[in-house]
């Protein structure tokens, strides 16, 4: 077979398309890349674990340090004589002398303030009946402040040849051989369950201090029949029930002025809208 002129029988080698890697090189590159990714992941994981470990160690160190500080502070407060009780100050005392409070708490002197609880203070002050409630405040290094809430003396009842001062709850506060000045004598039994005592208490609590101090004696035969006698003028005041006590207290002052200081009179304020002042029989 005749070949055209210029035709060569030499085979032209096949060339691979550009951009397509050889199979062997492609596999090796993929392995290297996978290995690098794995190493990077392991390194990142190790770094994260190391940082987390450092954080945990820091937290533990801080916690242990805080616990140590608390323990040390507790030991100092509970055992150190530096913060022991050396002085007692009293606030809110109107009836009880401060020396009585200090004497009652004398058994606690020298003890660390942190160990002096309110229960121990209450036990020490339990014999002082005038104290209704109290609060405490510590002032380092060695002062305990007692803030008192005293019971308000209402009047005195005659009992066993003496006069016992009571409050509105019929709690006995103290006793005196004679009728105490500035307090009315209550002529009913001081019993918290007694309706008569309850009525008398309500009336005395409603009166202004300047009037209650001028009352000589107060009684109540029934809930609606509270009466009292004024100390200097001997005027008798018919109060009635404890209802509208504020209005009655407001009109009683002018009625006492109108009654004057002469012959004893009867002042009836049971109806505060129409006060009656008349001579005693």
UniProtKB/TrEMBL annotation:
InterPro entries cross-referenced by the UniProt entry: FtsQ_DivIB, POTRA_FtsQ_type
Coiled-coil residue spans: none
Residues annotated as transmembrane: 59-84
Pfam family, one: POTRA_1
Keywords: Cell cycle, Cell division, Cell membrane, Membrane, Transmembrane, Transmembrane helix
GO cellular component, one term: plasma membrane
Entry's Gene Ontology BP terms: cell division
Keyword presence, Transmembrane helix: yes
Region (Disordered): 1-45
Residues in POTRA domain copies: 84-151
Record-given protein name: Unannotated protein
Organism: freshwater metagenome
């Amino acid at each position: 077979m005749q070949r055209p002129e210029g035709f060569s029988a030499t085979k032209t080698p096949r060339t691979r398309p550009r951009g397509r890697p050889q199979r062997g090189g492609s596999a090796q590159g993929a392995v290297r890349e996978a290995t690098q990714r794995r190493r990077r992941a392991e390194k990142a994981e190790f770094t994260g674990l190391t940082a987390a470990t450092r954080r945990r160690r820091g937290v533990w160190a801080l916690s242990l340090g805080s616990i140590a500080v608390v323990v040390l502070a507790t030991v100092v407060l509970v055992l150190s004589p530096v913060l022991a009780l050396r002085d007692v100050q009293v606030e809110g005392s109107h009836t009880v002398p401060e020396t009585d409070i200090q004497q009652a708490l004398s058994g606690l002197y020298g003890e660390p303030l942190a160990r002096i609880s309110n229960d121990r203070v209450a036990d020490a002050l339990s014999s002082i009946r005038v104290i209704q409630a109290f609060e405490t405040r510590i002032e380092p290094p060695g002062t305990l402040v007692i803030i008192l809430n005293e019971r308000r003396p209402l009047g005195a009842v005659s009992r066993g040849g003496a006069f016992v001062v009571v409050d509105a709850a019929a709690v006995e506060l103290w006793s005196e051989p004679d009728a105490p000045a500035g307090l009315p004598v209550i002529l009913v039994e001081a019993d918290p369950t007694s309706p008569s005592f309850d009525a008398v208490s309500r009336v005395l609590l409603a009166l202004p201090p300047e009037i209650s101090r001028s009352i000589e004696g107060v009684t109540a035969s029934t809930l609606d029949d509270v009466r009292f006698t004024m100390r200097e003028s001997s005027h008798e005041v018919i109060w009635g029930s404890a209802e509208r006590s504020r209005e009655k207290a407001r009109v009683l002052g002018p009625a006492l002025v109108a009654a004057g200081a002469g012959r004893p009179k009867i002042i009836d304020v049971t109806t505060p809208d129409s006060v009656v002042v008349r001579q005693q029989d």
